[in-house]
Amino acid sequence: MSDSIKTKNSIARGFKELMERKPFAKITVSDITSECGLNRQTFYYHFQDKYELLNWIFYNEAIEPFVDGLSFDTWTDKLLTLLHTIRDGSRFYANALRTSYSEEFREYLHKVSSNVFVSVIEDVSGNYVVSEEDKQFIARFFAYGITGSIISWVTGGMKEPPETITAHIENLVSDCQRLAVARYMNPDNKKSTPQV
Q1: What's the predicted TM-score (pTM) here?
Q2: In terms of CB atoms within 10 Å, which end of the chain has fewer, N or C?
Q3: C-alpha to C-alpha distance for 188 and 80, rounded to whole angstroms
Q4: How far is the CA of 147 from the CAs of 103, 140, 175, in angstroms?
Q5: 43 neighbors 7 (Cβ within 8 angstroms)
Q6: Per residue of the chain (196 residues), what is the pLDDT tens digit?
């Protein structure tokens, strides 16, 4: 591990410890550097501000492991891992999602989820042709639902275990995806109920 990554990790640890005790809005760069025993110059060498630091933590702890190797076959395992990561750092993530940055996190998670659902639709549709416009619409619909469910779970105190949330989402996606794709695959464009 490079010295730069070690320093970034040290800054991130100090910041996360502060986020356990203080709201994001009240944390200063001086607080962060004092917490991790570094000077302000070192902080600014690695991060522009605390928002960039927050983004770096989100990406490296939650998003990057979620998207690495993400596919139709792995998305439920990846989702479960993501939820465990968030729950393990529950106070930090709950605090972070109360900041102005939460919208960026939501948008990024939505974008990743949309891409996964396009793959799911392509897999479920088999030999039928589903227009790109319809695929994107269905994918966005499900991505909004999943992203909203995750954010709601975090801001609601993460009372349900990650396994329960993952199972609910997996079941809902599996059932609804078949119904939605069947609707668009019907050559007469009439509502139909597939055999499930």
Answers
A1: 0.77
A2: N
A3: 39
A4: 11, 10, 18
A5: no
A6: 788 899 999 999 999 999 989 999 899 999 999 999 999 999 999 999 998 998 899 889 988 888 788 777 788 899 899 999 999 999 998 888 877 667 777 887 788 778 777 877 776 666 667 788 888 888 888 888 888 888 899 989 999 999 999 998 888 777 765 665 566 555 554 434 445 4
All domains of the chain in start order, with CATH = 1-47 (1.10.10.60), 58-185 (1.10.357.10)
**Residue 116: alpha-carbon gap to chain centroid:** 12
The CA R_g of the chain, rounded to the nearest whole Å, is 20
Tokens for 102? Answer: 């939460």
DSSP string, 20-61: HHS-GGG--HHHHHHHHT--HHHHHHH-SSHHHHHHHHIIII
* CB distance 47 to 53 below 8 Å: yes
Helix, strand or coil for residue 190? coil
Greatest Cα pair distance, the chain, in angstroms, is 68
